[in-house]
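User: I'm new to structure prediction. If I give you an amino acid sequence, what do you actually give back? Let's try with this one:
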Amino acid sequence: MLKNRVEKAIEELRPRLQADGGDIELADVDEEKGVVKVRFKGACAGCPMSQMTLQLGVKTFLKKKIPEIKWVEAI
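Assistant: Good question. You get back a string of structure tokens that encode the predicted 3D arrangement of the chain. For your 75 residues, that looks like this:
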């Protein structure tokens, strides 16, 4: 199940964000479309660099770990 694989990957990624005072949680997975929605928390929520973190960090990491993912967005 894609959602379980995404949750495991986010658990791997989480300590990197927590080291900077932030966090991330999985909000939704559309298995049919390959779309993952995440929510930034802590210092990441509202951070001006959060879009860069999403694109260069989270999205790249998740797509590398799980090629079925087509898109990652923050809500």
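You can read the tokens as a compact description of the fold. Here is one thing that stands out. The mean pLDDT is 92.
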